[in-house]
Amino acid sequence: QVQLVESGGGLVQPGGSLRLSCVGSGFALDDYAVGWFRQAPGKEREGLLCSGSFDDTTYYSDSARDRFTISRDDAKNTVYLQMNALKPGDTAVYYCKTTNADWGQGTQVTVSS
Questions:
Q1: H helical segments located in 17-73
Q2: Residue 109: left (phi > 0), alpha (psi -120 to 50), or beta?
Q3: Does the structure show a pLDDT above 90 at 45?
């Protein structure tokens, strides 16, 4: 079964960091571009950045460009989102996505003191 599972979210104080994981099952993630998205309460889903097939990174958000990094571990079939200098405005459910898989359940990130 083709599936993406996100994890690593939680409660973090402003200025803190988190690393989110996106594990693929039923297919090889390194055959696909992988994007990270987020959806805050009452807002539309927002594209953040994407890791292409050649490990190139495309940013869709200026906020992500300054503070977020995407990386891959092909041996673990996993893509990571490293988030630094987190702000309360980063509070959202975070999702990863490939063209061949449906949206997963996401992982909740809450930035609050």
A1: 62-67
A2: beta
A3: yes
Residue 62 neighbours by CB under 8 Å, 6+ apart: none
Structure tokens that stand for 87 in this block = 């702000």
Position of tokens 């460009």?
A: 65
- Contacts with 56 (C-beta within 8 Å, 6 or more apart), sequence order: none
Say if residue 55's pLDDT is above 80. no
Do residues 81 and 57 touch, judged by C-beta distance below 8 A? Answer: no
Tokens of 113: 């003191």
- Distance (Å, rounded) from C-alpha 96 to C-alpha 44? 15
53, pLDDT greater than 80:
no
The torsion defined by the Cα of 58, 56, 36 and 29, in degrees rounded to 10, comes to: 150
Instruction: Write out the two tokens for 74.
Output: 């092909």
- In a 3-state reduction of DSSP, which class is residue 64? helix
